[in-house]
């Protein structure tokens, strides 16, 4: 009989700690929480654990903001040409065609008219997934056209910016859109039409330096980067250390560059309230159940008296219980 018997009992079937779930576009970069797509849509693409705000495409942003069934798009068919015949590592026309196929948009902004909180409003919403939300000739032209709709119909204008700035492939034509959009905002101001600017992550470059910074009320989402240049570029250019919160919405609010920071679940109500106040109308209030507080209290008090009277009802001989 063998005297020395060796038995290997080590596990080879993955007995160690479980491997972390693979990261997806719905994984929170802050707390690593994972979400299904339907959960993301229901939560307005905000992490329910830490409050991180995920990027939102233009069409989904419109659904989040406007009253159901009221959206009508304006200037739908505009798309960029290539007057400079620009080519870097790839032709501009090729990059633009790929962006159109990936996003289903013709350019980086959707403009139209809708109701927000029951108030007819002109709306411009940028989409960062289309060439970084860059502002070229079409973005500038569509912003001006929807501003003119606001002027003609005497309604407020709301913009939601998310952009890396002017589109380099259009050169000076893109830079001209800064002056063009600022002129449109000036027309609104002269006509007394309210303009509410919402800044989403990121809003930088020529967009941050033009119409996005000129709202009568400027709102921003938490943690959004709002600066002409990002912190990395500033560090490389100046060779100086910048604060950890450089360019973030919280720093901009502290320095007076924006008026308020609004989390996405509250954004629609805050925009509706702002345009109502700026239009001189009745301030918007979130719909609530109409309860007659006095009547409800009276009924409760009557019920309490009835119950107390039943407990302490006198006995037949006139003595207490």
Attribute tags:
alpha/beta, 2 domains, globular, 8 strands, single chain
CATH architecture of the largest domain: Alpha-Beta Complex
What structural category do the secondary elements indicate?
Answer: alpha/beta
Number of helices: 10
**How many strand segments?**
8
- The first-level CATH class of the largest domain is given as Alpha Beta
Largest sheet: 8 strands, mixed
Beta-strand share of residues: 5-15%
Share of helical residues: 25-40%
How are the SSEs ordered, and which strands pair?
Blueprint: H1 37-42, H2 58-65, E1 72-74, H3 92-103, E2 109-116, E3 119-126, H4 137-153, E4 157-163, H5 171-190, E5 195-204, H6 205-208, E6 217-220, E7 226-227, H7 231-238, H8 249-254, E8 260-261, H9 264-278, H10 293-311
Parallel strand pairs: 3-4, 4-5, 5-6, 5-7, 6-8
Antiparallel strand pairs: 1-2, 2-3
Helix pairs in contact: 4-5
Walkthrough of the structure:
Residues 311-321 have low confidence and may be disordered. This protein has helices spanning 37-42, 58-65, 92-103, 137-153, 171-190, 205-208, 231-238, 249-254, 264-278, 293-311; strands at 72-74, 109-116, 119-126, 157-163, 195-204, 217-220, 226-227, 260-261. Strands 1, 2, 3, 4, 5, 6, 7 and 8 form an 8-stranded mixed sheet that branches. Helix 4 links the parallel strand 3 (119-126) and strand 4. Helix 4 runs parallel beside helix 5 (171-190). It has 2 domains: 27-54, no CATH class; 57-278, 2-enoyl-CoA Hydratase, Chain A, domain 1, CATH 3.90.226.10. With 321 residues, it is of the alpha/beta class. Helices cover 36% and strands 14% of the residues. It is built from 10 helices and 8 strands. The longest helix is centred in the middle third of the chain and has 20 residues, at 171-190.
């Amino acid at each position: 009989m063998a005297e020395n018997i060796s038995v290997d009992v080590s596990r080879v079937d993955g007995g160690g700690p479980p491997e972390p779930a693979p990261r997806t576009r719905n994984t929170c970069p802050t707390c690593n929480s994972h979400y299904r797509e339907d959960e993301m849509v229901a939560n307005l693409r905000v992490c329910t654990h830490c409050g991180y705000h995920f990027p939102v495409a233009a069409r989904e942003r419109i659904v989040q903001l406007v009253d159901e069934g009221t959206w009508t798009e304006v200037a739908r068919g505009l798309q960029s040409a290539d007057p400079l015949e620009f080519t870097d590592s790839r032709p501009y026309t090729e990059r633009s065609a790929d962006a159109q196929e990936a996003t289903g948009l013709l350019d980086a902004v959707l403009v139209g008219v809708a109701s927000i909180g029951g108030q007819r409003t002109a709306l411009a919403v940028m989409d960062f997934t289309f060439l970084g939300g860059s502002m070229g000739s079409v973005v500038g032209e569509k912003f001006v056209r929807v501003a003119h709709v606001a002027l003609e119909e005497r309604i407020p204008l709301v913009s939601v910016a998310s952009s890396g700035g002017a589109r380099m492939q259009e050169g000076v034509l893109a830079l001209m859109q800064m002056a063009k959009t600022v002129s449109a905002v000036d027309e609104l101001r002269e006509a007394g039409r309210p303009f509410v600017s919402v800044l989403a992550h990121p809003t930088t470059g020529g967009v941050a330096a033009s119409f996005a910074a000129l709202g009568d009320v400027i709102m921003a989402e938490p943690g959004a980067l709002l600066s002409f240049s990002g912190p990395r570029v500033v560090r490389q250019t100046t060779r100086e250390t910048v604060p950890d919160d450089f360019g973030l919405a919280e720093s901009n609010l502290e320095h007076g560059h924006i008026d308020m920071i609004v989390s996405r679940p509250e954004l629609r109500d805050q925009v509706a309230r702002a345009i109502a106040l700026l239009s001189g109308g009745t301030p918007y209030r979130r719909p609530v159940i109409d309860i007659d507080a006095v009547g409800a209290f009276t009924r409760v008090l009557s019920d309490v008296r009835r119950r107390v009277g039943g407990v302490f009802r006198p006995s037949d001989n006139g003595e207490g219980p």
